[in-house]
């Protein structure tokens, strides 16, 4: 009796587009991180749990836009959405560079687009949305005008993952 191989279905693209890496965005901040051996896992690459901390470290200059002293009392930025897409393994020996850009500036929120490169190759893409809150009430409040002006100058005009222009809704 002869068996024919079962056909493998073609990969069906997701209806919801993941983060678009087709064109380089304007980089507002650039940070270099040296991976440590203890950040690797049993597979030999950097463990996926390490990337959120690396991306957060790369946001230091962004946080300084809201408070140049980086004071945490009161802290007014809260994460309301965070997405990571892993495109390629990251190893512990070569340094990585994180490019951060502003992809959306709302009345009370800011979305950052972050790209992690190792040896010139795009490996991980992140998008994180912060909402600015009143320190007393913890309710959303408008991004301060001086911060808005500085961030607006770097707002990407490239379409984001939801196929919307990277523009302000203010």
UniProtKB/TrEMBL annotation:
* Gene3D superfamilies given in the database record: Hotdog Thioesterase
Alphabetically list the UniProt keywords. Answer: Hydrolase
Which InterPro entries did the record assign?
Answer: 4-hydroxybenzoyl-CoA_TE, HotDog_dom_sf
- Which residues lie within the region annotated Disordered? 137-170
Ranges annotated as biased composition (Basic and acidic residues): 137-162
Q: Which positions carry the signal peptide feature in this UniProt record? A: none
**Would the keyword Metal-binding be found if you checked this record's keyword annotation?**
no
Which terms in the Gene Ontology molecular function aspect does this entry carry?
Answer: fatty acyl-CoA hydrolase activity
Q: Which family does it belong to?
A: Belongs to the 4-hydroxybenzoyl-CoA thioesterase family.
> What is the protein named?
Acyl-CoA thioesterase
């Amino acid at each position: 009796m002869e068996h024919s191989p079962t056909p493998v279905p073609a990969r069906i693209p997701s209806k919801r587009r993941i983060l678009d890496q087709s064109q380089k965005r304007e980089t507002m901040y650039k940070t270099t991180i040296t991976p440590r051996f203890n950040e690797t896992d049993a597979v030999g690459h950097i463990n996926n749990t390490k990337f959120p901390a690396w991306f957060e470290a790369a946001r230091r200059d962004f946080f300084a836009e809201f408070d140049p002293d980086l004071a945490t009392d009161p802290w007014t930025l809260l994460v309301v959405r965070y997405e990571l897409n892993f495109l390629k393994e990251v190893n512990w020996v070569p340094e990585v560079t994180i490019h951060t850009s502003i992809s959306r500036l709302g009345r009370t929120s800011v979305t950052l687009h972050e790209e992690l490169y190792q040896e010139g190759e795009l490996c991980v893409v992140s998008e994180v949305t912060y909402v600015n809150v009143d320190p007393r009430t913890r309710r959303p409040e408008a991004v301060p005008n001086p911060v808005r002006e500085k961030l607006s100058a770097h707002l990407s005009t490239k379409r984001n993952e939801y196929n919307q222009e990277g523009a302000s809704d203010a």
